[in-house]
User: Fold this.
Amino acid sequence: MPKPKVLFVCLGNSCRSIMAEALARHRCGDRWETASAGINPLGFVAPQTLKVLAEIGVNPAGLYSKGLSEIDLREYRLVINLCDHSLQGLMPPGDALSVLPRPVPDPYGCGLEVYRRSREAILQVIIRELCQEEEPRP
Assistant:
């Protein structure tokens, strides 16, 4: 049986959604097929995105910036919107696709510490929504 597909969306598909795609593949790729896209894709992955993924041992293989128009949304069961922009009118009509708004601050143009904070916020969303694990306790 094929794994359900999840799509992470942000504005530029250079930072947040790219991180989410890689983190979800790393944490629960045995349960979900992951992808990412941007509302207005920048066409490149920010070097800081790759750096903060590498810091925690997450493989960035296959990651590239792409737009929603390059994705067949009918193949997806779940969309997680990581930005504040509405996806209304961008998703196919019907009830087959669930869209979860989970805004995370955009680190683009900021320093590595902001990228790390975004990475950790995204990781918490993934743990809660996809892996359905308890959050680690301090």
